[in-house]
Amino acid sequence: MQASYSHDLIDDLLVINFSGDLIGEQSGPELMDIINDRINQSVLFAAIDISDIRYINSSGIGVLITILTKFRNKGGEVILVNPSEHVKKLLVITKLNAIFTIVNSLDEARVQIKK
Question: What CATH number is given to the structural domain containing 60?
Fold first, then answer.
């Protein structure tokens, strides 16, 4: 099952909810268009809820890193919200847990961006 996503803007925080398998499929370019539009509207922070991601491969990781790079290049930040145990293990193995801020809830993400 390919990943699906939804997005919302909540108080200058772009919230992206992924579900399914994040394997860097066709939705990548469309998602990047949305992200570029928000960054151009001076949105500097994104919270990516990956609690409903069952599986992620290297292309999916590439999507997350691309999003992070786009926001950091503008002085912003991306926070990963509530990864599953499987995804957490993958983030540790790839050492991406040292690159991404990872929190357990959207409320925690909001606290992080106010720091």
Answer: 3.30.750.24
- Look up the domain containing 77 and give its range: 4-114
Q: What sections of 1-115 are H helices per DSSP?
A: 27-40, 58-73, 85-93, 106-114
Is the per-residue pLDDT at 109 higher than 70? Answer: yes
φ and ψ of 20, to 5 deg:
95, -140
- Torsion angle (degrees, nearest 10) of CA 47, 94, 91, 35: 20
For the residues 76-90, what does the mean pLDDT come to? 94
Q: How many domains, in total, are found in the chain?
A: 1
Contact 64, 100 (CB under 8 A): yes
